[in-house]
Design goal:
185 residues; mainly alpha; Double Clp-N motif; 11 helices; globular
């Protein structure tokens, strides 16, 4: 399914799988894809960062799991044991690189199904690349797929985080055009 996706876009989806597991969710949803896009270099991360968004800001607007999915690290539960998850995360990042704790495999995480809204994001990304006459699907196309959703957890998180959706869309389209030599616009 991901043959036409650039490596960073593929990795963003892998990051989305990890994010869903970290959040204790039973499916990979569009909001997890959004976090994955922000974590990987590319047009999507550049546009999201330029809009003043961060992983922490977006996570604050994404629901956490309350199901039987693989449990991520629960900061509140750990704090009752006297463990500061932020301190552990900083130490892990310093020792093993940024995001190391989030990349740690959670048992069963690889089997998470893809929710309908995340499938729609991927479909819209492919469609956007086709509209622009581009053979490879980039993180920018994936972000456009999110921004063109009528209703999704990712769009809700962006709106709640204060993102200007039309400005973000225009910015990522400019970035896609710039990396493709300006064709497709």
């Amino acid at each position: 399914m991901f043959e036409r996706f650039e490596p960073a876009a593929r990795q963003a989806f892998a990051d989305a799988r990890q994010e869903a597991g970290r959040a204790g969710q039973d499916q990979i949803r569009s909001e997890h894809v959004l976090i994955g896009l922000l974590r990987e270099p590319g047009a999507a991360a550049d546009a999201l960062t330029a809009a003043g968004l961060s992983v922490a800001a977006l996570r604050a607007h994404i629901r956490q799991g309350d199901n039987n999915a693989p449990a991520g690290l629960d900061a509140d539960a750990l704090s009752t044991l006297g463990i500061d998850l932020d301190a552990v995360r900083r130490a892990t990042d310093a020792a093993f690189g940024p995001g190391a704790l989030d990349r740690a495999a959670v048992r069963g995480q690889a089997r998470l199904p893809v929710a309908g809204d995340a499938k729609q994001v991927l479909g819209r990304a492919v469609h956007q690349a086709q509209l622009l006459g581009q053979r490879e699907i980039t993180s920018g196309h994936m972000l456009i797929g999110i921004l063109e959703s009528r209703r999704s957890g990712a769009l809700t998180a962006l709106t709640r985080a204060g993102a200007d959706i039309p400005a973000l869309r225009a910015d990522v389209l400019r970035r896609i055009a710039a990396t493709s030599g300006g064709d497709g616009q």
